[in-house]
Amino acid sequence: MAKQSAKAPAPATLLVELLTEELPPKALRSLSEAFATALADDLRQDNFLEPDSEMQPYATPRRLAVRITRVRDRAPDMPFDARGPSVKSALDAEGRPTQALLQFAKKRDVDISKLTRQETPKGEFFVHHTIAPGRYLDATLAIKVGAALEDLPIPKVMRWGSGEAEFVRPVHGLVMLHGSRNVSGNVLGAESSDKTQGHRFLSGGAIVLKHADEYERTLREHGKVIAGFPARRTLVVKGLEAAAGPGTALVADDVLLDEITALVEAPAVYAGDFGREFLELPEECLVLSMQRHQKYVPLRDRKTGELLPRFLFVSNLEAKDPREIVRGNERVLRARLADAKFFYDQDRKTRLETRVPRLASVVYHNRLGSQLERVERIQLLAGRIAHEFGADPLLTGRAAWLSKADLLTDMVGEFPELQGMMGRYYAIHDGEPRAVADAIGDQYRLKLDGSDPLNLASASLYLADRLDQLTGLFGVGERPTGEKDPYALRRAALGVINVFERLGTVLRLTGSTGPDIQELLEHAAGLYRTVTLAPDTVAAVHSFVLDRYWNQLATVFAKDSVEAVLSQRPPLMDVVRRVEAVEAFRRLPEAESLAAANKRVVNILKQATAKGESFASVDPDKLKEPAERELYSALAITAGNAKGLYERGDFTGFFQTCAVLKGPVDAFFDTVMVMVEDRELRQNRLALLSKLRNEMNRVADIAKLAA
Known about the structure:
By secondary structure, the protein is of the alpha+beta class. β13 (195-197) and β14 (206-208) form a beta hairpin.
């Protein structure tokens, strides 16, 4: 057995850096954090880290790195128990060692007398207590780095050169520095060294790293690179805010700022202008052109809220004379906006309604027909939904008829992300009613953000679109599997849930009711008259939506409360209020006993049904025992009182009313035998329990709350 040296080297900072070609900017931050976390966790698991070790990830366009403090050169020796055969198999009837025990002792290179017995949940075993020598960092680091990189969330990898290595981008260098010492190793075809690379244009070649603790400073001073992602992002934001000036707001979310940060190593912010005439374009087009396509930051006047004919961009180097850089970026943006303005002007020369027939030549899905066929289905379904929910069926039908016409416009052809939004602008230009235009614009918005919740035409069209999508694609076998969801059907299901929640709020204010999803799914499936859908389509879509709802609610409420409600497949617009009522019920002193009693009732009825028992309605004249008569009477009174509460949607009040049944239910089970020999008496008692279950479980299956 190896012996640990009298004095182990002091822990030192570990630096691991992978130099690559330009990494995907949208994923850079997550890749960096995932790599750093995976490597640190692996080192900690094998006892290379001190309790107070700290991890610092780094990420630039061409590198992933992590610096970890107080990393041991050699992991400490650790006690280790090698378990051998069970005592039953290790000793014969006379207590002598069997071959199993002898072979174990030989394998461990110890005398049998050195083995001890140890009790475990699986019985008594022979055990060899020993000390496992700690491993050396040099022997394992390259393997751990490779494993951390292999586990990164990378959808596609590539190969380069003549080697077999695979990564998201070609790898050109590796640094594994422990303190000031290079840890030799090969990862993805790159040999480790103490040399890194600085800025592509501002640095003068390879940079020698003298110590892992000096990594960030060395790169900043000699490589002109800000290695830390958060530090670089802070510089980007401060630079943008300073360049924007007072009274001007940045039009940039965290996603855009992260992507800009991932594109530069030494950020420098510059400002450019575009012609005021381009402000005639829809704002969404301007913002999309700048943000999505050019990674520019639009600017907005804080007082008026209007976009300004200015933009900011972040360069990867600071120029002495930036005028050429600015002019070049202005030319690029103006050219793109000039194209957009031409498309916009040309599109408005043709009314949306004249484009609709041409949708017959646009394929929606090779098994579901054209976009025109889809529009015809959506129009019928949206009109039905609008009628049920109190919207104007004519306006909703008109919006549905025009909803996909902008797919044939030049603007949407150039900017597919503007589907629906451009349809709204063109509908307004054509003089369509505002409700029609708004519904067209809202159809692709998952949560109808910014729309009037009382615009039932928008909600009806949105819902019709999603229900047609779900039933059609489920019906021809395009169902999500695992992580694959190419048609975003999970997103569609969440959209359906969101709309039903909003509609429920609106309808309760007006005292109205509407159809539930089951009824609408059946209608949607029936509109596929030229396509044969799978027989289980409606049931499968309904279950799929409820599963998505379960996942969503289980992050907020107790899982069994959610299951108790959704197992009843209730109307979607009532689900949240029902779950909230179940949570309130659980706080009642009677809840635990009633939940347990309901579970007992469910089991009794299940067993009786399995034996072929039939039980329809209760005959009061056949109730013999005082406890069963008392339960029948209490249930009749409670059911009458609870019915009105249930119908008004007062689910919390419903449960509070049912709580009074605790006493009669407990007394029934304490004194009454259900499964008696007398068939008529037995079936009458089963009928009473069935009635109890049905009345108490109108809101939720409270048996699922029982431990």
